[in-house]
Amino acid sequence: MINRFTLFLVLVFTLSLSQHSAFSQEKTPSHKFWETLKSHCGKAYEGKLVSPESDPRFAGKLVMHVRACEDGRIRIPFFVGDDRSRTWVLTRDEAGLIQLKHDHRHEDGSEDQVTQYGGKATHAGSVTAQFFPADQFTANLLPAAVGNVWWITVDETSFTYNLRRLGTPTLFSVRFDLTQSIDIPAAPWGWQD
User: Fold this and answer.
1) How far is 135 from 118, CA to CA, in rounded Å?
2) Within 13 Å, how many C-alpha atoms sit on residue 2's CB side?
């Protein structure tokens, strides 16, 4: 026969296990950020340059397309007019930290000489923002980019892609309106549909 004290201990132990289980299943900010991005998979959005206000290299229609959401990887082509050379590639490691790489291609699909640069988040960030300081590969490929920090923000209404080169006045920012999807664009250079 179980006495009241033993029953009380069993109850306290059971409650503590259920609370621990609930806390351990709580999603990290980077996981929630990832899920928000994935919710846009298959959709395309138009954007505008925020900083600088104008740049001849980004004078065409700006479009992002959350084209591929695979297990642990999201690929987002970024088009500038007819230039379909750029894709942002986000991957997640086992700890849930996110990495950003830039995949640059020529029109024939071959890799550009300057490609696969980027960085990895050093912490879980926030639900709406992830920061990617330049990694060693980037520093070796582009020594001037050793001070680059990229960041992406996403909320219910907008997605922004940003770059700051520390120690310089360089700031690049483009914002996409997530409230209005547009027609799906053609595949980026080097992709097979």
Assistant:
1) 6
2) 8
CATH number of the structural domain 29-182: 2.40.128
Report the distance separating Cα 180 and Cα 140, nearest Å.
39
Structure tokens at 180: 């209005």
Q: How far apart are CA 175 and CA 46, in angstroms?
A: 9
**Looking at this protein, which amino acid is placed at residue 133?**
P
d(C-alpha 135, C-alpha 100), whole Å: 10
The three-point CA angle 104-110-112 to 5° equals 40
Burial class (CB in 10 A: 0-12, 13-18, 19+), 119: buried
Residue 21 gets the label, from left (phi > 0), alpha (psi -120 to 50) or beta, of: alpha
**Per-10-residue mean pLDDT for the chain, 193 residues long?**
48 44 68 97 97 89 97 97 97 95 97 97 96 98 96 97 94 97 96 72
